[in-house]
Amino acid sequence: MDLEKNHLSVIDYTVFGLMLVISALIGIYYKLSGGRQQTTEEYLLANKQMSVIPVAFSLMASFMSAITLLGVTAEIYMFGIEFIIINISYIIGTPIAGLIFLPVFYKLKVVSIYEYLEKRFNRTVRITASLVFTTQMIVYMSIVLYAPALALSAVTGLSKWTAIISVGFVCTLYCTIGGIKAVIWTDVFQSILMFTALIAIIIKGTVDVGGIDVVWHRALVSNRLNLINLDPNPFTRQSLWSLTIGGVFIYVSLYGVNQTQVQRLLTLKSLRKSQKALTISWILTSMLSLITAFTGLVIFANFWKCDPLLENEILKSDQLMPYFVMKSLATYPGLPGLIIAGIFSGSLSSVSSFVNSLAAVSLEDYIKPHFRDRLSQKFEIIASKILVMFYGCLCVSLTVLADQMPAILQASLIIFGVVGGPLLMLFTAGMCCPGCNSFGTLIGFVISLIVGFWIGIGNVLFASKPIPLSRSTQECPNNMFNNLTSSLPQQPLNQNNSFSLYNLSYMWFSAFTFTIGLIIAIILSKLKGNQKPVNNSLLTPLLRSSGNHGIEINDTNESIKLNNF
């Protein structure tokens, strides 16, 4: 199939453009309604007046982005359904995030969650963690914006850089003028488009092959229903243990101690509502995950005797979904446009959430402390909007980096494993380990980051490449590899023969860096000694003692007076 001949129709572009217009109009509406963003409390936290359902959708959409739509589809197509086991980690991680970490953030009434680290430890720990988060999000945003541009360039004649600039502009526009209310409500709209796109692909693809039983049979005979792998080897790419245990660390680092998610939870008026939104978000996240996985099986069922990668019709597995859309749905005007809009919606929802949270962190951690609360509300609002605009533009300019990444799903999980684990360790040491002091915790954090980057970069450059399950070109019209590919055995997932640390499963990165950092933090804190009593309000509710009501004295000998719960 010649992709150059498969362009979106005028109706498809109209549908796609309508999605961008609606997203921009939501931003304009919230610019002109409510308190009209006269305070940073409204611009960054919506005056804590948001409802549970839209916040739940926003939580889901922030990280279940185009990377999910394209990456998980490709993962299931190439390696089978084992990845869906990660949903077990969502079940375990949700109460951990909601009961251990969220109550502390909510009662302290912080805007930037890194303010907690200054109260618990000192300003050096706060700024170090904040800078690491900022860097992480900037890099991740480039991948998230690149993913749908890749999808569009694979099926139309439009340059991916043109797509990146246009989508980045609209995203930056409604984030800047609409604040977090616009971000959350556009997330709801874009989430609906994401679900709609996947369901449309599933229905059409299933009908084309003759029913769900055919999809299931083709997955079964090709060994793609490989749900459980009990291999405890940490160098195995994916297993029950890495996806559940390792997945918990990734999930909690995203939903428990990540500024993007916690900031959304703080837009609700009570802790109970925040916990409810988190629970509903888990259900929505699992629904999207499972639907996306089944989409991968449906696409494989359609290509099981004519693999487009082996035929060199596409270059990367991440292009499988848009390729299928143009091959199967192009005869239905508007439907390919709807699905491409759904893919882009995943990216818009994530990037908008990130730039908003980065603006909040930059204002609270880098700007306000230098002025000692002498800034006017008007100045803070202007600064916030300039920061949103800056990060939106920076995201677009750095998107070129994503073109150098491996498969986008694995790349994103590596980034969150390398950085998310150490950040999770910081907040765990603060809330769950009263004996940890700023010296030991900071050293543990830095060492865990160094180890994480060393392994993460080594994994990308030197690790053994995973071996996909078998595919075929037996029924391709221009088959050149028929005799070879049709006789390929059903190959298992790559079980790395090399025990180099670079071959550590990417699902273990977060747990590995977390463990190293926490052990070092505990040991060094114990050796240094002289740990002062920690105020109850800085500990997770599960560890608070009724007798500890004193003022915390951090390692800089500054007294920070806090209201007890």
Report on this structure.
The structure is a single chain. By secondary structure, this protein is mostly helical. The chain contains 19 helices and 2 strands. It has helices at 10-32, 40-45, 52-63, 66-79, 86-108, 115-120, 123-155, 160-209, 212-221, 240-255, 259-265, 271-303, 320-328, 335-367, 377-397, 408-432, 438-462, 482-485, 509-528, and strands spanning 552-553, 559-560. The longest helix is centred in the N-terminal third of the chain and has 50 residues, at 160-209. The chain is globular and about 75 Å long.
**What value does the average pLDDT take?**
85
Give, in spatial order, the strands making up the sheet with the most strands: 1-2
* Percent of sequence in beta strands: under 5%
- Assign a percent range to the helix content: 55-70%
Helical segment count: 19
Following the backbone from N to C, one meets helices and strands in this order, namely HHHHHHHHHHHHHHHHHHHEE
SS-based class: mainly alpha
Name the CATH homologous superfamily.
Answer: Sodium/glucose cotransporter
Summarize the structure.
A two-stranded antiparallel ribbon has the order 1-2. It has one domain: Sodium/glucose cotransporter (Up-down Bundle). Helices cover 65% and strands 1% of the residues.
